[in-house]
């Protein structure tokens, strides 16, 4: 079984920065694409940033130039550096990873979510 555990959320003023981390743990697995999603109150969950196993990245237009996704494959960890935060970035942020597990095959895994609140 693989688990994703996020950390780094919190309350910040507009213009501030936060760094989210997500580490995958388990036995005998290989991580493919990793990403961050968010869901604001009353809205659908949306993809924020994705990073492939070879480091290619993709961002939703609203965060381009402000957020940076990165990963450390040796640590099975993905990061989201969020700068110039805006109140509209307020949401629960979820880590997602597409993972191949030797026992069960490939599947999508989700973290428990971490709250990011940006005050104006």
Task: Give the arrangement of secondary structure elements.
Elements: E1 3-7, E2 10-13, E3 18-25, E4 29-39, E5 46-51, E6 57-59, E7 67-72, E8 77-82, E9 91-101, E10 105-110, E11 114-119
Parallel strand pairs: 2-11
Antiparallel strand pairs: 1-3, 3-8, 4-5, 4-9, 5-6, 7-8, 9-10, 9-11
Model description:
Helices cover 0% and strands 60% of the residues. The chain is an all-beta fold and 120 residues long. The strands form two sheets. Strands 2, 4, 5, 6, 9, 10 and 11 form a seven-stranded mixed β-sheet that branches. Strands 1-3-8-7 form a four-stranded antiparallel β-sheet, with no helix packed on it. Strand 7 and strand 8 (77-82) form a beta hairpin. The mean pLDDT is 96.
Structural class: mainly beta
Shape: elongated
Helix count from the secondary structure assignment: 0
- Could you estimate the helical fraction of the residues in percent? under 10%
Mean residue pLDDT: 96
H-E order: EEEEEEEEEEE
**Structure summary, number of beta strands:** 11
Strand residue percentage: over 45%
Low-confidence regions: none
Largest sheet composition: 7 strands, mixed
Outline of this structure?
By secondary structure, the chain is mostly beta strands. It has strands at about 5, 10-15, 20-25, 30-40, 45-50, 55-60, 65-70, 75-80, 90-100, 105-110, 115-120.
